[in-house]
Amino acid sequence: MLWAFMASANFGKLVIIVFILIVILDLPLLLYAVHCGLGYCCVRHARRICRRNGLEIRRSRAGMAFNQSGVKTEFTIVELDCLDGQKQRKLVRLLVWVFGIRKVLDDEKYPESFDGQWPPSRG
Q: What is the pTM of this model?
């Protein structure tokens, strides 16, 4: 009877230790999934705005936004390489956050020298 009690106590400790290890090991995966999800959400907002304005999106990328003192903000800068109605290339830079578009930073003719700065496309 005493042995059964001690075995169940050890089993309970083992369950707690395994649970703590699972939480510790899965936390980075969860944080990475949230990070990717928020980035996807921001790019999706930007793409939706461009489609509403009649722009055909060719490619997009996102990066961190910083304030004047160099501190990262909660916003994301999304750059879109688009074609307008006359098939002229445009570079649209937007300041985006999870709840939508914060501000249009640039809406200009696409500089041809900018092509080398884009990462290679997949596929």
A: 0.67
